[in-house]
Design goal:
The complex is a heterodimer of chains A (431) and B (234).
Chain A: H1 3-7, H2 11-30, E1 31-33, H3 40-48, H4 54-91, H5 97-115, H6 118-133, H7 136-150, H8 158-164, H9 168-173, H10 181-190, H11 200-210, H12 215-239, H13 261-280, H14 282-295, H15 300-303, H16 309-321, H17 328-336, H18 342-355, H19 360-367, H20 370-382, H21 387-397, H22 400-427
Helix pairs in contact in A: 4-5, 4-6, 4-12, 5-14, 5-18, 6-13, 10-12, 11-12, 11-19, 11-20, 12-20, 13-14, 14-18, 16-17, 17-18, 20-22, 21-22
Chain B: E1 2-9, H1 15-22, E2 28-32, E3 39-47, E4 50-56, H2 68-80, E5 84-90, H3 94-106, E6 111-116, H4 118-123, E7 126-128, H5 130-137, E8 141-143, H6 152-165, H7 177-192, H8 194-199, H9 202-210, H10 214-219, H11 226-233
Parallel strand pairs in B: 1-4, 1-5, 5-6, 6-8
Antiparallel strand pairs in B: 2-3, 3-4
Helix pairs in contact in B: 7-9, 7-11
Classes of the chains: A mainly alpha (431), B alpha/beta (234).
Chain lengths: 431, 234
Amino acid sequence: MKVREVLGDDPEIVLADKRYDLIHTILETTLVRGAKKWALSDMLDKVFLHKYLGIPVFLALAWAMFRFAFDVSAPFMEIIGLFFGLLAEASRGIPNEVLASFLSDGIFGGLGFILTFIPLIFFLFLTIAILEDSGYLARVAFIMDRVMFKLGLHGRSFIPMLLGFGCNVPAMMATRSIESEKDRLITLLVNPFVSCSARLPVYILIAGAFFGSMASTAIWSMYFLGIVLAMLLALLLRKTVLRGEPTPFIMELPLYKAPTFHGSVIHMWERGVQFLKKAGTYLLVGAIILWFLSSFPWGVAQESVELSYTGQIGHALEPIFRPFGFDWRIVSSLIFGFMAKEIVVEALGIIYAVEGGEAIAGALVADYSPLIGFTLMAFTLLYVPCLATVGTMRKESGSWKWTIFQVVLSLVLAYVIGLAITGIGVMLGYA
Amino acid sequence: MAYTVALIGNPNVGKSVIFNNLVPGARQHVGNWPGKTVEKKEGKCIHKGIELKIVDLPGTYSLTSRAVDELIARNYIIEEKPEVMVDIVDASNIERNLYLTLLLLELEANLVIALNMFDIAKDKGYKIDMKALSEQLGVPIVPTVATTKEGMEELKDEIIKAAERKSSIKTKITYGEKIEDLIHSIVKIIKKDETLAKKYPLRWMAIKLLEKDEDILEKIRSSRYHHELMEVIS
């Protein structure tokens, strides 16, 4: 007897059908289905999973999420800022000049400044945890799958993309659940464009300084830009170097349930603690290095930070960034930001602290236009992912070729988008 | 006396809640499956003086060789041969959940079904004749509501009963005469290869070969009867 005669061309599917037939037969005699009630879960899904409304509703919810986190955390951030301000002030009185500068500018001005973002990061994680625990995020995966499939991304890519909003490193590791090599590589390559929480302090600083009541909208637009670019790139890769069809995706939607306070707080804490750990390691080391480079050669740098090592590095590369209106401060901040993107903020904090310690937001507004601020936000989103992400890319893709491709792609994209934003801004008269 | 018990089930059936109910937090050990980034949780509990070593397998819908988590679960069952497998079935989605149950029966696992989310199934208006279901599948069934810890003691009782039954259940599940004939003719060949026959459940292996499962096709490549097998299945 031939297998083909019995099982046809796709035996796996035929056998699966057989199993379902059997389940059917068994349940016929053992299960009585009562009248199906019109449950709340179904009603919610009518809206949240709506063919056309689903995505706008998601975008609106995401915006509300930022708005909430931003507004609620503002007073807490203010308090922490004042606290470090006082510490910096106090440590300036230390007789040893170098130590005084190290503490007040490097530690309290740089590391302390980045720590003021803790409330915001925690509140944002709290809102994400609430959406996740309620069962809504799984729906987002579902509504996005339709779009992602059209764009050549696999449905399983969505979870890594979602994790990318926290940190791209675990997000890229999560791509291992994608079966097809091509699907996986595409997801890896576009993942760094999903805006991770490390970029958030940069957005908050810039948006807070320049955009006032529009700040949360400006931040939201960065996330939006990241997602759109990631999807367009995926489509482009799918049509060019990684040709092929994505494999279909089946997922299950859990029932909606009211998130518990306890559960959501635990989720928030687990993720927020990652930021604290980073602050204690990477960002601390970054602050020490940055303080050193910004305060030495001793004496000369105190005269003007422009003459410090940081200033020299920034000046050397400034011409490349001239079209965007970035000066040496921003340029050197961006360079150090390769270590970790929060360092962009830390670096600006230290540079301004060494310069004279006025409030950074005020100093930024005095030195740059809102257009430059917006370009800086976009540039921070796009230019080379941080050191850890590049390392992960190498490990997960197993190839230097694709790693370098990703880095070059990011730089080119950052530059092109930067030019586009500047160009459009100037045309609209925002120079 | 100690038994190894593996928990398995579809995603979102309350598997980790059951694991947490069975194993007190302090006795849990979280690690990774060897060489994989998939999380592995295990722990011990003692019930009526008998130690149960509980292993939490990844949540899966199926047991193909294509996805990492499915392969981990399936290799664990084949290689470690846990004394008892608890298949956690979402009672409110019983139709889809039983698919994995059938696959586990193919693997000749010594099954106990925890029919979880029993409360939600009731709310949905489901009435399940558990005695009849248990008889048709040939598997003991314990209704549970993991979130309120209902049915946990009964589940542990049933696990120990199953472990002491020793001989695993021979399934009564069949896929119709024609397919069974094919399965039978493949089984006859595999039986001749002692190394294969010792390592894998015969009927399961035959089904996987019919399905052209890549992992199993690879495994028979070195067999002396490779040629003979390929002739039947291709």
